[in-house]
Amino acid sequence: xxxxxxxxxxxxxxxxxxxxxxxxxxxxxxxxxxxxxxxxxxxxxxxxxxxxxxxxxxxxxxxxxxxxxxxxxxxxxxxxxxxxxxxxxxxxxxxxxxxxxxxxxxxxxxxxxxxxxxxxxxxxxxxxxxxxxxxxxxxxxxxxxxxxxxxxxxxxxxxxxxxxxxxxxxxxxxxxxxxxxxxxxxxxxx
Length: 190
Known about the structure:
Shape: elongated
Number of domains: 2
CATH architecture of the largest domain: 3-Layer(aba) Sandwich
Oligomer: single chain
Number of strands: 5
Radius of gyration: 18 Å
């Protein structure tokens, strides 16, 4: 099978929309507004934090927000210097900063980031554990969500696929990124 024909190809997975389990988007945005447009998306790896930020990049401009975003990874040796130069310049009340991987900033870099970001009208960060900003949304996964995503990628699923989903969900402790990568490998081997 060619990589592009694999239903679990990265491009196809990236097209899957984020699905908040506990609330609707209007409810979430209302909660964010009540938090003075500042909050953290919290959750373990592979539970949808980055996917949620990607969705927010689409949703926020519809409410007249100008989105500025940055991604920090564990491999960043000095996360502060890896931030885009224009991320924190000329900020105004309709600018919203989305920072994926805020825990990569040292304590001092985090304090500097907050000081420089204070003139932005909105701020959303992703972290694995609470503490950087007040928790706005906690990303969780379920076996039912996995079944829905796999069904969306395949068109339909049966009990054998559900059984594999159950096994992989338990194996990877709900990390859907790893589950879908293994599905890719399973399909590639067919």
